[in-house]
């Protein structure tokens, strides 16, 4: 992308209710967004436990998706032993690589991971009958009139059925699931443990990371995210609340409590404050498609790490520098605990992450400084598309973020996003709306 690439990003689509922020139902807020490996399908999960799938509309030019199917993935539950309500909110969705005409995907709430099969099912009806419409045999009926019932195709529906339920393995809230490159196993991670599962075995998992101390009063860190290496099926990484990323190798030992590498910057003692540990907590980590680079997001920055260099990141990109003086207010309103996701482009040349007031940023992963691309997932982009001109679509998307934000602006934030694996198209969740932007 050249410098004018910023103006090539255009708003493409918006799904969801276009009403005001005050009218939003809690259950409709999107909590997960994920493209499949081809980019032809897109999944979203919401706080109401629903998963909605979209399919690429091949009949249209550019990047356009249409509704494919929707199903209820999780229901609210109650843990009677601990007297705790278990929310139905979808925390993560991960697609499995497609091997036949059916789609398989994993979805998880705080406690239970489910494997779903989504497929097109033919509905057949009986067309040849020996009885008339009243349900009676005609009075002139003879044995020679006897016909065998025949089934003919009536309709095709998209069906979703749960194939496996991976339950009762996490005492704490699940924050990550990741499918292994071997296509046979996946990991699920909560605040203190990471478990390894075989996709075909739902009643047994193996604990591969356990950072729970014998005495919980000695707890100093929690796991915030985990992901398998995209190429080496034996390697995975996990991030912790103290700002470090640990790379582990399952060939080393059954319990990977001795990490192979730790990616961590030394603490700046001079600038240490009450908020230092909170804002340095890693919210999300992602491997590049080739597994060479790691992208990490904390509250203030986006960092690019080379897997061969643990001491410092290759590039540190400030995201929320303008909020440095407002940390006290953000803490009092709990916004400082917001978990912003990050993602690589398919070619690894660009990185995407969200911010407040429905702004999100696209940065070059080239270590050389280059200006960020600021885009806004705003209702005006939808209105501009209705107005019709390409110029309107671009200008409505590309804006400079304001440094002065109200409480309402902090409530409008881009936490979840996904980048198409093969092209410059992105899907971002803005509260209860799914926005799609593209350079096509």
Record the strand order, biggest sheet: 1-30-29-28
Outline the low-pLDDT stretches: none
Largest sheet: 4 strands, antiparallel
Query: How many helices?
Result: 5
Structural class: mainly beta
The helix content, as a percent range, equals: under 10%
Categorize the overall geometry: globular
Written description of the protein model:
A hairpin with a 3-residue loop joins strand 3 (41-46) and strand 4. The protein starts with 9 loop residues before the first strand and ends with a strand. The chain has helices spanning 276-280, 327-332, 379-387, 390-397, 407-411; strands spanning 10-15, 30-35, 41-46, 50-56, 65-72, 77-79, 84-86, 92-95, 103-108, 113-126, 151-166, 174-179, 185-190, 193-198, 205-210, 223-228, 235-240, 245-249, 261-263, 284-287, 293-297, 301-306, 315-318, 342-344, 350-354, 359-364, 373-376, 416-419, 425-430, 433-438. It has 5 helices and 30 strands. A 4-stranded antiparallel β-sheet has the order 1-30-29-28. Strands 2-3-4-5 form a 4-stranded antiparallel β-sheet, with no helix packed on it. Helix 3 runs antiparallel to helix 4 (390-397). With 440 residues, it is mainly beta. Helix content is 8%, strand content 40%. The mean pLDDT is 89.
Core attributes:
single chain; about 450 residues; mainly beta; four-stranded antiparallel sheet
């Amino acid at each position: 992308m050249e410098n004018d690439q910023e103006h090539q990003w255009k708003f493409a689509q918006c799904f969801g209710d276009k009403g005001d922020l005050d009218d939003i139902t809690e259950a409709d807020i999107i909590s997960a967004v994920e493209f499949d490996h081809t980019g032809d399908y897109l999944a979203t999960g919401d706080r109401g436990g629903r998963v909605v799938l979209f399919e690429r509309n091949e009949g249209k030019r550019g990047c356009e998706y249409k509704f494919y199917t929707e199903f209820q993935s999780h229901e609210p539950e109650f843990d009677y032993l601990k007297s705790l309500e278990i929310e139905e909110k979808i925390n993560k969705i991960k697609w499995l690589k497609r091997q036949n005409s059916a789609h398989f995907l994993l979805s998880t709430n705080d406690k239970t991971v489910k494997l779903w099969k989504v497929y097109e099912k033919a509905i057949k009806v009986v067309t040849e009958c020996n009885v008339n419409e009243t349900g009676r045999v005609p009075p002139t009926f003879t044995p020679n009139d006897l016909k065998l019932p025949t089934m003919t195709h009536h309709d095709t529906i998209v069906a979703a059925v749960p194939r496996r339920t991976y339950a009762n393995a996490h005492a704490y809230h699940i924050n990550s699931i990741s499918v292994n490159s071997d296509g046979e196993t996946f990991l699920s991670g909560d605040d203190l443990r990471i478990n390894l599962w075989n996709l075909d075995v739902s009643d047994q998992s193996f604990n591969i990371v356990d950072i729970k101390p014998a005495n919980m009063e000695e707890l100093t860190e929690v796991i915030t995210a985990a992901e398998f290496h995209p190429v080496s099926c034996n390697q995975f990484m996990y991030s912790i609340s103290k700002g470090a990323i640990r790379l582990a190798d399952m060939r080393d030992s059954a319990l990977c409590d001795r990490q192979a590498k730790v990616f961590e910057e030394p603490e700046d003692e001079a600038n240490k404050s009450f908020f230092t540990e909170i804002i340095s907590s890693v919210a999300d980590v992602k491997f590049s498609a080739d597994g060479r680079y790691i992208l990490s997001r904390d509250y203030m920055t986006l960092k690019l790490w080379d897997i061969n260099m643990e001491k410092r990141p290759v590039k540190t990109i400030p995201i929320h520098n303008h909020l440095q003086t407002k940390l006290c207010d953000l803490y009092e309103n709990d916004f400082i605990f917001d978990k912003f996701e990050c993602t690589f482009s398919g070619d690894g040349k660009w990185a995407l992450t969200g911010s407040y007031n429905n702004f999100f940023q696209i940065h070059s992963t080239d270590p050389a400084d280059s200006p960020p691309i600021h885009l806004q997932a705003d209702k005006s982009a939808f209105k501009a598309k209705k107005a019709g001109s390409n110029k309107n679509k671009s200008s409505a998307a590309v804006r400079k973020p304001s440094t002065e934000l109200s409480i309402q602006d902090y409530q409008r934030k881009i936490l979840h996003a996904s980048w198409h694996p093969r092209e410059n198209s992105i899907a971002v969740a803005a509260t209860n709306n799914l926005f799609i932007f593209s350079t096509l």
